[in-house]
Amino acid sequence: MGQICQRESATAAEKPKLHLLAESEIDKYLYAMRLSDETLIDIMTRFRKEMKNGLSRDFNPTATVKMLPTFVRSIPDGSEKGDFIALDLGGSSFRILRVQVNHEKNQNVHMESEVYDTPENIVHGSGSQLFDHVAECLGDFMEKRKIKDKKLPVGFTFSFPCQQSKIDEAILITWTKRFKASGVEGADVVKLLNKAIKKRGDYDANIVAVVNDTVGTMMTCGYDDQHCEVGLIIGTGTNACYMEELRHIDLVEGDEGRMCINTEWGAFGDDGSLEDIRTEFDREIDRGSLNPGKQLFEKMVSGMYLGELVRLILVKMAKEGLLFEGRITPELLTRGKFNTSDVSA
């Protein structure tokens, strides 16, 4: 009995040392994920180079940051008014809004909105299924508000890389995030949506513009503050847009005035330029994604992936005995079990 007590006492005495050792090892993991100011400045320089390449007609084909012209030439000036429908597709859900803009002193903008699910079988099915679903949701939204008899102008926020030659046309370059519907890449998404609406026949819609979600963000903020010239998204994915002088954009004709550029910066690093800062966890996230080798910067910072990133780190630390006394549950080993919302403070 005395020996047993003595052994337990020694084990208890060792616990603080073991705890400190574990803390030291955990700090090594965290240190590897911290970037110095010098590294951040270096990454900024690389990114700026890719931006310039993207704006150049000669270098754009090989640039990872595509710097796509949006054909949006200015931010709102406050004179806008009317009754509009807005569609927002591209994140974790699909949102429809009715936006009424007037010049009343008390309330310039009145909005009502509804959020619809975009199930996995829809976003991973065929393109016709996806746009039939969008048209069905729009029909439901209009029916509830008794506006099916109105042909309201529709703005379509489509949060994926698209080639545009005019404001109401968008050729999908590639799907990103959780979307993988077949038969859409290389096609005009406005035509696909118009086809789905026409097939229903119970309402009509006039799609007057299609924009990226970053552009929609900039325009919304610009309505209240005309100094706003940058739109930034850090959500399910990540991207940014900004107003650029037309003379710097080789991809479109003319050099007078300005145009909004959709950077599509989520693909930064797809050429290997971020390999020195990517961790083993970043690489595992990429291998398990729908689009391996693509959108590497997005996979390092955006909401769709951060929960899984934390799970992978916890698994490795637990296997090395640094967390949970080395115990690993089946839930911890399950891909996708951690959402970013679960690990956000």
UniProtKB/TrEMBL annotation:
It is an enzyme of class 2 (transferase). It catalyses: D-fructose + ATP = D-fructose 6-phosphate + ADP + H(+); D-glucose + ATP = D-glucose 6-phosphate + ADP + H(+); a D-hexose + ATP = a D-hexose 6-phosphate + ADP + H(+). Keywords: Acetylation, Allosteric enzyme, ATP-binding, Cytoplasm, Glycolysis, Kinase, Membrane, Mitochondrion, Mitochondrion outer membrane, Nucleotide-binding, Repeat, Transferase. Its main location: cytoplasm. InterPro entries: ATPase_NBD (IPR043129), Hexokinase (IPR001312), Hexokinase_BS (IPR019807), Hexokinase_C (IPR022673), Hexokinase_N (IPR022672). GO terms for molecular function: ATP binding; D-glucose binding; hexokinase activity. Its EC number is 2.7.1.-. Pfam families: Hexokinase_1 (PF00349), Hexokinase_2 (PF03727). It is found in: Cytoplasm, Cytosol; Mitochondrion outer membrane. It is a peripheral membrane protein. It comes from the Eukaryota. Residues 230-345 form the Hexokinase C-terminal domain. PROSITE patterns: HEXOKINASE_1, HEXOKINASE_2. The keyword NAD does not apply. Pathway: Carbohydrate metabolism; hexose metabolism; Carbohydrate degradation; glycolysis; D-glyceraldehyde 3-phosphate and glycerone phosphate from D-glucose: step 1/4. Residues 26-223 form the Hexokinase N-terminal domain. PANTHER family: HEXOKINASE (PTHR19443), HEXOKINASE-2 (PTHR19443:SF4). Monomer. Interacts with TIGAR; the interaction increases hexokinase activity in a hypoxia- and HIF1A-dependent manner. Belongs to the hexokinase family. Catalyzes the phosphorylation of hexose, such as D-glucose and D-fructose, to hexose 6-phosphate (D-glucose 6-phosphate and D-fructose 6-phosphate, respectively). Mediates the initial step of glycolysis by catalyzing phosphorylation of D-glucose to D-glucose 6-phosphate. Plays a key role in maintaining the integrity of the outer mitochondrial membrane by preventing the release of apoptogenic molecules from the intermembrane space and subsequent apoptosis. This is Phosphotransferase. It comes from Homo sapiens.
